[in-house]
Amino acid sequence: MSPEWLSALARYNRWMNDKLYGRAATLSDEARKRDGGAFFKSIHGTFNHILLADRIWLSRFTGVTVPDGLMGPGGIRSLDQELFVDFEELRRERATTDDELSAWVAELTHERLAAPLVFVRRGQRSESPLWWAVAHVFNHQTHHRGQITTLLTQLGCDPGVTDLVAMLREEATRAPVASGDQQHV
Fold first, then answer.
1. Percentage of the chain surpassing pLDDT 70?
2. Using an 8 Å Cβ cutoff, are 105 and 10 in contact?
3. What residue spans define the domains of the chain?
4. Is a pLDDT exceeding 60 seen at residue 125?
5. In the predicted model, is pLDDT for residue 71 greater than 60?
6. CATH superfamily for domain 3-170
7. What local confidence, expressed as pLDDT, does residue 185 receive?
8. Quick one: which of 37, 41, 16, 20 has its CA closest to 139?
9. Distance (Å, rounded) from C-alpha 109 to C-alpha 3?
10. Which of 25, 76, 96, 114 could form a disulfide with 72 if both were Cys (CB 3.0 to 4.6 A apart)?
11. Beta carbons within 8 Å of 130's beta carbon, 6+ residues apart
12. DSSP for 52-87?
């Protein structure tokens, strides 16, 4: 697990969040909050869950102290808690958290990733290499965004291409070509 790979995952995270929030914004609030049978019921509920899980992990990564009885900062007490009822507020907070996650990832080194992450969860001390938890964060997001794409599709809203390689190709086509790398025809 390298800092470069995690940087790509942070960019993919933002790319997919922007895309799915954009698609979900075309739906009514009622449609976004309709129980579609996913783990966290609805599109809105699943977006909320991803956001609160990211905030829990970011607090662990950055050493934020969480009061006893809470799971995360800002009063997070359960994994199905609705942080924001208003979709636009949820969307803004998602963008803010993506900024924070990207900034944190940008500071990672190989040594830091190999070092232990220690935190207390439900009164139990947990310790593992940091890279395990970081890999989990990005995998967790992908898992639940897959549920969102299914819910969107069921509502007749095409989520578009969701492949990591599509984002990487898109980035490669936008990258400036160095003067020595230009091919002459």
1. 95
2. yes
3. 3-170
4. yes
5. yes
6. dinb family like domain (1.20.120.450)
7. 42
8. 16
9. 6
10. 76
11. 61, 112, 113, 114, 115, 116, 117
12. HHHHHHHHHHHT----TT-SBGGGB--TT--S-SSH
Q: What is the distance between the alpha carbons of residues 161 and 158, in angstroms, rounded to a whole number?
A: 9
Q: Which tokens hold the place of 123?
A: 């009164």
Which has the closest alpha carbon to 51: 12, 91, 11?
91
Crossing angle for the helix pair 3-24 and 130-154, nearest 10 degrees?
Answer: 20
Joined together, the tokens standing for residue 76 give: 């997070």
Q: What pLDDT, on a 0 to 100 scale, did the predictor assign at position 180?
A: 52
Q: Where are the alpha helices (DSSP H) in the chain?
A: 3-24, 29-32, 43-62, 87-106, 110-114, 130-154, 164-174
Which tokens go with 27?
């739906």
